[in-house]
Design brief:
Elements lengths: L6 H17 L23 H17 L4 H36 L3 H4 L13 H22 L1
Length: about 150
């Protein structure tokens, strides 16, 4: 294989991130005060999960399921899943509370606060699709680059 293996998870992560615009058609960046072409948090599929499972797949393919590297990749994937499914949802709830508090301020003072995203985390199905996409794209790229 002539392609550096670290590129495959990066390609998978970027492809998954930019595929969100096709999966999340009901989301409009203009309505949320955001730049239309920038990646955003949350949504279908989870690009972080796709990246983590792509890395996991590359390591399983190259080093095997019994290697210490695979164990480290499993730990990293679990931490990323915990962040996507639990921690960022917790932060999103803080965002909702802050948006509510800002809405109680006078209109002229509200303009001094930036727009806060309320949906930062992922639903379990978004993480599952991200993991599936990560594994599938990685296997396809491994076959193509072999």
């Amino acid at each position: 294989m002539n392609t550096p293996l670290f590129l495959i998870p990066l390609i998978v992560g970027l492809m998954t991130q930019f595929s969100k615009r096709f999966f999340n058609r009901n989301w409009s960046p203009e309505l949320h005060g955001e730049t239309p072409h920038l990646p955003r948090y949350g949504g279908m599929p989870s690009a972080h999960t796709a990246f983590a499972f792509s890395l996991l797949t590359v390591i399983a393919y190259t080093a095997g399921f019994t290697s210490p590297l695979f164990v480290i990749a499993v730990v990293v994937a679990v931490i990323i899943l915990d962040d996507a499914l639990r921690m960022r949802i917790f932060l999103g709830r803080h965002g909702e509370a802050l948006v509510h508090l800002i809405s109680l301020l006078p209109k002229e003072e509200q303009k001094s606060f930036p727009h806060l995203e309320k949906k930062l985390g992922h639903e379990p199905v978004e993480a599952l699709v991200g993991a599936s996409v990560g594994i599938a794209l990685t296997l396809m790229l491994l076959i193509i680059f072999s």
